[in-house]
Amino acid sequence: MPQTPVVADGGRAERTERREKKADDRRDELRAAVTTILAEKKLPMTRKELWDALPDGLRVNEVLFKELLLEGVGSEWEREGSQGGGFKYWSIGG
Q1: Considering just the CA atoms, what is the radius of gyration of the chain in Å?
Q2: Lowest-confidence segment of 1-5, 29-33, 45-49, 73-77 by average pLDDT
Q3: Rounded to whole angstroms, how far apart are CA atoms 26 and 24?
Q4: How far apart are alpha carbons 22 and 60 in whole angstroms?
Q5: How far is CA 82 from CA 41, 44, 55, 57, 67, in A?
Q6: pTM for this structure?
Q7: Segment 53-65, tens digit of pLDDT
Q8: H helices of 1-91, where?
């Protein structure tokens, strides 16, 4: 019977895996909230308006929020720039 090698990492691999899973879940929850807000508003919204419309529990990491907005452009929502006013985002479906 082959022996399973013992990894002496003090459980770091498990903790890392749990942390990554939690981050992925948080990202998915944030993406779903942005998608829902844009679909319900049916009007272009600035990044600030979107941030303010998020539930309190999701308004935690603004850097993640900004990254997620950029990732979703073209696939989940669209954006347009306005002079001095920043970008506005809207749902592709609406």
Answers
A1: 19
A2: 1-5
A3: 5
A4: 14
A5: 19, 12, 27, 30, 20
A6: 0.75
A7: 999 999 989 999 9
A8: 12-41, 47-53, 62-72
